[in-house]
Amino acid sequence: MTEEADRAVDPSTPDVALEATAGPEDDVVRVGYTNAAVELLRELWHRHGALMFHQSGGCCEGSAPMCFPVGEFRTGDSDVLLGTAVLTAADGSDLGPLELYISREQFQAWKHTRLIIDAVPGRGSGFSLEAPTGHRFLTRSTLCTV
Amino acid sequence: MTVYAQPGQADSPVSFKSRYEHFIGGKWVAPVKGEYFEDVSPVNGKPFTEVGRGTAEDIEAALDAAWAAAPSWNTSTPTERAILLNKIADRMEENLETLAVAETWDNGKPVRENLAADIPLAIDHFRYFAGAIRSQEGRLSQIDEDTVAYHFHEPLGVVGQIIPWNFPILMGVWKLAPALAAGNCVVLKPAEQTPASILVLIELIQDLLPDGVVNVVNGFGVEAGKPLASNKRIRKIAFTGETTTGRLIMQYASENIIPVTLELGGKSPNVFFEDIAQQQDEFYQKALEGFALFGLNQGEVCTCPSRALVQKGMYDDFVAAGIERVNKMVQGNPLDTNTMVGAQASTDQLEKILSYLEIGKQEGAKVLTGGERLMLDGDLAEGYYVKPTVFEGTNSMRIFQEEIFGPVLSLTSFTDFDDAISIANDTLYGLGAGVWARSGTTAYRAGRAIQSGRVWVNQYHNYPAHAAFGGYKSSGIGRENHLMMLDHYQQTKNLLVSYSEKEMGLF
After folding, report:
1. What distance in Å separates residue A88's CA from the closest CA in chain B?
2. Quick one: where's region Disordered (chain A) (predicted)?
3. Which of B49, B166, B373, B483 sits CB 3.0–4.6 Å from B16 for a disulfide?
4. What is the distance between the alpha carbons of residues B104 and B64, in angstroms, rounded to a whole number?
5. In this structure, how many other beta carbons lie within 10 angstroms of the beta carbon of residue A133?
6. What is the pTM of this model?
């Protein structure tokens, strides 16, 4: 079995390379990014400029974190900012803040979980920016001690 | 029992081309940028064809073709449209096995479902809307003796449609048939996970379609879906998918002030009242089958009955018998007509389901059966198979709240009617629900009290045309599968006519 397929059958928690600070309505550090996610984000940031995430729900790709250029997806009072990470380039220089939002009603169902954004080989979904890269973002959740 | 040969083998009813271009203006057209992407079969995890990787340029070309066709198709008669829809239906019927096997290879679902449900339902859908448009009438209102308000149905013009991967042909047809019946030209973007089967359908019917009336552009969401959904030259956008993309599509539509229909999923409760167990008869067996129906289409259904609510008085016996049913599901080669549960549609989907199995275990839900990936042998070893799984837990758990889109049932109990309704409605979604009871009163009251667009009573997963389908709450906007969908694809022209010769007397 290939390494990729091996990973597919092992949903255990990967290492977090980048932690986000908690959002203003939250006192829990719940969003983290794996090394693979950070590398993919750097590539997308280079191509598209500043980025953001919105955690989706529902049909088909429902649990996928959707990555957009900042300003593409309008957030509002119906959303909760879950965390802000500072993304850096490979040389350590700051790229900028990376926010992750979720709809307020979905947050109610997710608030006891930690979200670790990983990147794995795959097709991506919705209008998320990574789809053409052959990799996609995946939310891996663990329970947090809230 | 039949095991269909894999596409491409000599005795298979379908042979995919090695490459598919876009279908624009009645012709197969290479993508402007000349790029293609691989289509992988979930049956064995291997690529089997490549399709055009569409971009904004291709969407514009498709819209040019659609608008070029609009003057004649928008003014076609209901009879002409009905004839086209009926001819498409006949052609599909003549090629049932080809379409069924193509769909299985692209999506992974068992061929038995395509032969018995997906393709026959799609055929019927064209016939239904052929009839619906023939029988549609405008209305008139007599305002006073000499003033009449006439209401005419007019097509919107050109519409955009974005199709999901879980029923690539059937969901495509749910959108195409009413749009065409209403007189619109269409630019359709299939899901990038399942772009090929719908092109097999187009190949079969292309000689029937007037040039430019149906245009298909494949590609990734961000590269092809967005330029379609945000385009100023569409008069309506229809989408089936998840909530974030649904919201984004509404945002684009708000910029263009066009209508939207959205179907965004669910977390459907399947409620079993204890009077079911009064007798161990045929109906009891039917209810047990209802318990196991979460396995249909590998759970990749927006209305998957993914939450079972079983009343405490019969819980132990009913659940034990239900699990026995689940364990009898035959899983394996999707091209085998005995197979009931096939492959998940993509590696993305497989990983997502496995991650939810992990979340369920972490949250303390008890695995009553399944709970892991299924590894098949030989050629299917790299395919995407998951064992039908039943978790026992509580409704606040993530596996009860999030749509897993896999063969995963989250099971809990309830005490009485009010408890059942409270749990059933404790969800963001409201697309489907099931109610099982011998008491007609209980069934009726529960059906009315559950906040969802479709409540199946003493049955589940039945999708006949002429029964409206759509969501409450975060499950979307609009009603498909019914002639009321024509309204979503039509303008109302009001002609307010005075037959009086007298002045109004104002100036």
Report:
1. 25
2. 1-21
3. B49
4. 33
5. 17
6. 0.95
Set of chain A residues whose Cβ sits within 8 Å of the Cβ of B263: 59
pLDDT of amino acid A2: 37
Instruction: Report yes or no: B430 and B451 within 8 Å, Cβ to Cβ.
Output: yes
- Tens of pLDDT, residues B195-246: 999 999 999 999 999 999 999 999 999 999 999 999 999 999 999 999 999 9
| Burial status of residue B502 (CB atoms within 10 A of its CB: 0-12, 13-18, 19 or more) | exposed
Does A5 sit within 8 Å of B382, measured CB to CB?
Answer: yes
Whether B243 and A132 lie within 8 Å, measured CB to CB: no
Q: Compute the residue count for chain B.
A: 507
Three-state SS at B62: helix
Report if residue A99 sits inside a domain: yes
Active site residue B263: yes
CB nearest to B348's CB, from A59, A74, A123 = A123
Residue A95, in any domain of the structure: yes
Active-site entry in B263, B274, B300, B402: B263
- For residue B46, how many other CB atoms are within 10 A of its CB? 12
pLDDT of residue A13: 65
Domains identified in chain A, total number: 1
Q: Is the dihedral of CA B17, B22, B28, B32 positive or negative?
A: negative
Cα separation, B250 vs B262, whole angstroms? 9
Whether residue A129 and residue B222 make contact (CB cut-off 8 A), yes or no, is yes
In chain A, which residues have their Cβ closer than 8 Å to the Cβ of B225? 126-127
How high is the mean pLDDT of chain B?
Answer: 97
A57/B428 touch (CB, cutoff 8 Å), yes or no: yes
Contact between A61 and B266 using a beta-carbon 8 Å cutoff: no
Query: How many Å lie between the alpha carbon of B401 and the closest alpha carbon of chain A?
Result: 6
Q: Is the dihedral of CA B448, B449, B452, B454 positive or negative?
A: negative
Q: List the beta strands (DSSP E) in B437-489.
A: 454-457, 472-473, 476-477
Identity of the amino acid at B346: S
Q: How far apart are CA A127 and CA B220, in angstroms?
A: 8
Alpha helix locations (H) across B182-223? 197-205
pLDDT of residue A140: 87
Model confidence over A103-121: pLDDT tens digits? 999 998 888 889 999 999 9
Asked if residue B182 lies in contact with residue B486, where contact means CB atoms within 8 angstroms, the answer is yes
Q: Which stretch of DSSP H or E encloses residue B239?
A: strand B237-240
* Segments in chain B below pLDDT 50: none
Q: Which residue has the tokens 């809990």?
A: B412
CATH code for the domain in which residue A115 is found: 2.60.300
- Listed in sequence order, the residues at least 6 apart from B408 whose beta carbon sits closer than 8 Å to its beta carbon are B294, B299, B306, B353, B356, B357, B360, B370, B386, B388, B389, B390, B391, B399
- Which residue of chain B has the CA closest to A116? B355
Instruction: Determine, yes or no, domain membership for A71.
Output: yes
| ipTM for this model | 0.91
Residue A9 domain flag: no
Q: pLDDT, tens digit, for every residue of B305-325?
A: 999 999 999 999 999 999 999
Report the candidate in B116, B96, B130, B110 with the shortest Cα–Cα distance to residue B13.
Answer: B96
Structural domain that includes position A55: 16-143
Chain A residues with beta carbon closer than 8 angstroms to that of B352: 61, 63-64, 138
B165 contacts on A by Cβ (under 8 Å) = 60
Q: Which domains does chain B have, with CATH numbers?
A: 20-264+475-493 (3.40.605.10), 269-457 (3.40.309.10)
Work out how many CB contacts closer than 8 A connect A with B. Answer: 165
